[in-house]
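Open question from group meeting: does this chain pack into something compact, or does most of it stay loose? Before anyone orders reagents, we agreed to write out a predicted structure and look at it together. Recording both the input and the output here so the notebook holds the full record.
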Amino acid sequence: MTSTAKEMTSEELQVLLNSCQSVKSDLNLIVISLRRRQLSGAHQCAKATIEILRNLLGRYNFSSADHMMKVVRAVGRELIAAAPSELTIGNLVRRVLFLIREEHAGQVKEFGAGVVQVFPTKRDRSGSNMSNGDASAAAAAANNVLAQSLAGSGSDQAHSQSSAAPLESILDQLNIQSSSSINAEDFTRYYAGLKGNVIGAINELYNEIDNVAVICQRAQEHIHTGELILTYGYSRIVEQFLKAAGAKRKFQLVVAESNPGLDGHKLAQSLSKVPSIGVTLIPDSNIYALMARVNKVILSPNAVTADGGAICPSGMLMVCIAAKELSVPVVCVTGAFTLTPLFAHNQSSVLNQLLSPADALPYNANINVNNVEVNHPAFDYVPPDLISLYVTNDGNQLPSYVFRQLSEYYHPQDYYIL
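Structure tokens returned:
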């Protein structure tokens, strides 16, 4: 349920932050770091977002859950505007909003809200709300319709004519008499234990982000002795995943260097210290030539879209196309916080982002620059049909099942924060 009052503006947020300069300075520092790309990557942005929201909720006193959600959304808009390409920022803001709703529902269940809830329809569950008086009126209307339907069935003939859809008539009557949905919770109510419960839930979420042990425990299910594994570039979670597999499995690893950033060198150097992993570093041009010998491709996306696709660092689409051509399974290892309720076709600011061309072609190169145009995209979109499996905190998920996971992490009314 979203409050009918208008959202908190940026000016109102600044007035609120002026009462606590430490939180304001921390928020400004994160915004500047995001704009300068000093703070980037799914994991680092997720941790920074959770930390600033936890400090914000801990320092201020809120009059209600509605007030709390307005402030979180306002801060979320500031962070997202600073770095639209970092989708995990919006994901964590939505998760915190979901936790506030969840903890508020627990307070309502424990202490009561005084609201009658009857027959919520599909439209009711989707998000609009009804006042306490409207809910009571709708409940009375349901009883009247039910009584009329029972009273009108005195004879067998009347019963045979009216028994076709008694429940349908009740629901239709409810829909006619209630122009807005039934509200089982009032977010404007104050509950003393709400703030502490929300911060406790946020602490658990922070530990979930920083803990990849749950994912690494499944490494030995996917990597077996004697296999040849291929990965691309560097990823912290892929590094930990492969090290966990190397603890009890002996296998060969091919690392594509990920030109022009050459992040694969860092991963190859780190995993070369594991005795059970034989590491081979190759240029990107050799990926297709070696793909026929590869048993499995292990990658880590920056974000997982609602349709099961993945937004990955530039170059991974090439790897996935080669794997699909040669029937090699692609396993994406990622945390649940990278799952976004948005679709790739709405992410033009992400997929159209370009990095400095100097990484690919130095400015002092001995060429005629007037005839050369260098595009250095930051991200690729990998369609779901090129991905075999996702390994997350919640287990192994098929790309087609990702959409069902959204209801466990986000509320539908929080999908679009901006």
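Observations to bring back to the group:
The CA atoms of residues 61 and 276 lie 54 Å apart.
Strands lie at 228-232, 251-256, 277-282, 296-299, 303-304, 310-313, 330-333, 379-382, 389-392, 395-397.
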